[in-house]
Design the sequence.
């Protein structure tokens, strides 16, 4: 293990399915090598709830479907030197964005109120619930994003490649086979 | 003396009447393109095949090769422009590769890989484009249409049916079906039509075939597009 200061890495899943985080874990035993060089800050893996102000890398899974997503994304941008969009949803909205051609009211009405079997269903309005956005947006439409790892999910190998490129001070590059939008 | 021009410093032979992209293809040099297809009259609309000829931008699918031309194609500058065009195509439509049957066989996707498109960069339009499932054998998913007009040309010039057309202007240009109802099911379109084979993206899809070949074993999974698309292959 080197004596170099470990890089702080924060991760989060916004409007995503955690599939990209599962794929991240798919780098398998290379996680140990990675942990020689990085430490996790805010992440579902550590359960730390807020970013330290000096994070080196922030990895975002998922797009923006509600106000809390936007808040968390801005927190990451503010506290991370490098921000990475991981996976299709962060990059183009992905599956959640399939609702974008429908008015939000129509969706909420149907999901909670008018679908068969919903007896007096009410649209949730607890003040603790973040308000949904009218449309789902990819994260680059709200903050500056430095790097992108496409894929649904990106393979563990693609995530590994980008992270090791960054750790080595190289510009990340995914060649044929690692570059996938699906 | 045989006719030649240079493409990125390489000498390319050509026959009188050939376009730059035709001659390049014959010589095994890939120039990115979407609306060009070797079997059809060029349309010159996608501009992906833009090259610099003697320092000036031009579409290589419409520009005839001339002796002594100096053509630049695979340069950082031109590829950046091609990438920007590709990104605009992605945000103009609804291109969600994970849910598209054409993924892995899609020329738009493979071209974006080739150009190193890591993100769509621009703001998405998220247009509302309902699908047409009226035909018993073919689904039309307009969300992915890039207006290359290959189906229009194939149906008109090869099938003699005129099933498709581009309608509207500018950003409102869209693909339409020539039937009173506007539905593909009300035309004489069949799977045997050339127009059913030429869509470079996932608009014209044969039903009940979607994942017969699994993701990961498809055309551009095996080899990048630059190695699969040249004239005659």
Sequence:
């Amino acid at each position: 293990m080197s004596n170099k200061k470990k890089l702080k890495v924060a991760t989060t899943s916004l409007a995503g399915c955690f599939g990209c985080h599962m794929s991240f874990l798919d780098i398998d035993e290379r996680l140990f090598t990675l942990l020689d060089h990085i430490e996790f800050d805010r992440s579902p893996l550590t359960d730390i709830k807020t970013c330290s102000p000096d994070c080196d890398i922030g990895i975002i899974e998922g797009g923006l479907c509600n106000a809390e997503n936007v808040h968390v994304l801005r927190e990451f941008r503010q506290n991370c030197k490098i921000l990475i969009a991981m996976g299709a949803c962060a990059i183009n909205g992905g599956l959640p964005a399939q609702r974008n051609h429908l008015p939000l009211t129509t969706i909420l009405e149907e999901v909670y109120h008018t679908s068969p079997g919903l007896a007096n269903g009410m649209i949730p309005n607890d003040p603790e619930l973040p308000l949904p956005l009218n449309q789902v947006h990819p994260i680059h439409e709200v903050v500056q994003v430095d790097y992108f790892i496409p894929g649904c999910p990106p393979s563990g190998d693609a995530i590994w490649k980008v992270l090791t490129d960054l750790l080595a001070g190289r510009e990340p590059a995914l060649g044929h086979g690692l570059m996938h939008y699906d | 003396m045989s006719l030649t021009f240079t493409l990125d410093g390489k000498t390319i032979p050509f026959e009188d009447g050939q376009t730059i992209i035709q001659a390049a293809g014959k010589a095994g040099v890939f120039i990115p393109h979407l609306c060009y297809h070797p079997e059809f009259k060029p349309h010159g609309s996608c501009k992906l095949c833009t090259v610099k000829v003697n320092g000036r931008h031009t579409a290589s699918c419409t520009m005839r090769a001339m002796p002594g031309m100096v053509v630049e194609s695979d340069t950082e500058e031109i590829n950046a422009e091609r990438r920007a065009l590709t990104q605009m195509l992605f945000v103009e439509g609804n291109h969600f590769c994970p849910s598209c049957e054409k993924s892995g066989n899609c020329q738009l996707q493979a071209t974006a890989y080739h150009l190193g498109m890591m993100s769509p960069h621009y703001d998405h339009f998220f247009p509302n484009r309902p699908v047409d499932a009226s035909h018993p054998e073919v689904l039309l998913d307009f969300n992915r249409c890039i207006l290359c007009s290959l189906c229009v040309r194939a149906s008109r010039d090869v099938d003699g049916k005129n099933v498709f057309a581009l309608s509207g202007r500018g950003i409102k240009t869209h693909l339409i079906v020539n039937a009173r109802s506007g539905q593909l099911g009300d035309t004489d379109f069949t799977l045997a039509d050339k127009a059913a084979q030429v869509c470079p993206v996932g608009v014209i899809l044969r039903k009940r075939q979607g994942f017969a070949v699994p993701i990961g074993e498809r055309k551009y999974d095996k080899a990048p597009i630059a190695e699969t698309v040249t004239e005659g292959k």
